[in-house]
Amino acid sequence: MLIVEDEPSFVDALTVGLSREGFRVESAPDGVEGLARFRASVPDIVLLDVMLPRLSGIDVCREIRKESSVPIIMVTARSEEIDTVVGLEVGADDYVSKPYRLRELVARMRAVLRRGTGAEDVSDERTDDIVFVDGNLELDVDRHEVTLDGNAVGVPLKEFELLALFLENAGNVLTRSTLIDRVWGHDYVGDTKTLDVHVKRLRGRIEEKPSEPRRIVTVRGLGYKFVPSGD
Ligand code: CA
């Protein structure tokens, strides 16, 4: 695999972690070198930072796409940027935002690699996909997709993880600390409002009337609960 990333601390941590997962890791510190390294080594998958010196990750992605269908996972500095990057339709296969967990990245990488192994394999994998369904709402964990009435809904990474957690525990109260711990872990920075902001945004995407939420309800003094449709 090829990592194009200009922050040495990320490169070091990823090289160690991903080597342990069985990947042979090469890296490049900027966009120009990344493109050159891509052409020289023909990796099976590319992890591409968006903000890079010399040539941005978006430009690198576009250049690679002109000559290859290699799986590309783009890395944004903030989850909010994913929407922007996705909107540009540069041809990446998946997106993660910093900070991310290695375990999650590896899962994404394996999912993207599986998808690239031919139609038959893909349909086989689909049967193993974890898909949560609640009324008109569906969340596909492996494909990282949310649909409402069959229409795709763009959901940034943290909100996606929150929603998956809510659906997995539908009907049960999830405390604030559980949610923060499971979705952000040690990466959680800022005050406890961060969680509320993400919940608010999520409601805006999946609730019919976000101001009167019927799916993700607040449980005063505790946290939140996902109320299944029909309850
Ligand atoms: Ca960067």
Write up what this structure looks like:
This protein is an alpha/beta fold and 231 residues long. The protein has 2 domains: 2-113, Response regulator (Rossmann fold, 3-Layer(aba) Sandwich); 120-226, Arc Repressor Mutant, subunit A (Orthogonal Bundle). It contains 9 helices and 12 strands. It has a 5-stranded parallel beta sheet with strand order 2-1-3-4-5, sandwiched between helices. Helix 7 (157-168) packs across helix 9 (193-206). The chain is elongated and about 55 Å long. The termini are far apart. The relative contact order is 0.09. Residues 118-128 have low confidence and may be disordered. The protein binds calcium ion. The site of calcium ion has 5 residues, from loops.
Would you summarize the structure shown here?
This protein has 231 residues and is of the alpha/beta class. The chain folds into two domains: 2-113, Rossmann fold (3-Layer(aba) Sandwich), CATH 3.40.50.2300; 120-226, Arc Repressor Mutant, subunit A. It has helices at 8-20, 31-41, 57-67, 79-88, 102-115, 119-126, 157-168, 176-183, 193-206, and strands at residues 2-4, 26-28, 46-49, 72-76, 94-97, 131-134, 137-140, 145-148, 151-153, 173-175, 216-219, 223-226.
